[in-house]
C-alpha cells in the first residue's frame, strides 16, 4: 500500500507524510469514523497530530479517491476507506446502528435514474435513514 500511496500522492503534487499515512491507516482500521475518531486513533501512535491536520489529510485522501465520506448523522461526516466494496448506508434512527449495503442493492433505483433522467448516481454518498427490523419489532404492541 505504501508505494502505491506514495505514487498517487506524488502524481497529484503531494508527498507521503507520516501524518497522512497515520490518518489513512486509522480510517482503514476503524471502518467508519468521524474526524474526531480518526484523531483519537492517530494519537495512539503520535501525540503531535492535531485535529486540523486530520481534516486536511482527510480532504487530500478523499481528493485522491482513497477515502470517501458519508453523512450518517447530524454530526461530522463519517469517513471510510475505498478499499472496501462500493456501498451505501442504512442508519436506524432508533438504535443508531449503521449497516453497509452493497451498491447492487440500489441497482433498480440507479438504473431508473439513468433511464429517466440521464443521471449517474454516486451511491457511495447515499445514506438511508429509517428503522431497523429489530427496533421495529420492539416498537410493535
Distance between the termini: 52 Å
**What about the largest sheet?**
3 strands, mixed
**Strand arrangement in the largest pleated sheet:** 4-3-5
SSE order = HHHHEEEEHEH
Strand coverage percent: 15-25%
Mean pLDDT: 88
pLDDT under 50 segments (min length 5)?
A: none
Helix content: 40-55%
Contiguous helical run count = 6
What's the Cα radius of gyration? 17 Å
Number of strands: 5
Shape descriptor reads: flat
Find the structural class using helix and strand composition.
alpha+beta
Task: Give a written overview of the molecule.
- This protein is α+β, with helices and mostly antiparallel strands and 141 residues long.
- 45% of the residues lie in helices and 16% in strands.
- It has six helices and five strands, in the order H-H-H-H-E-E-E-E-H-E-H.
- A three-stranded mixed sheet has the order 4-3-5, with no helix packed on it.
- The longest helix has 13 residues, at 18-30.
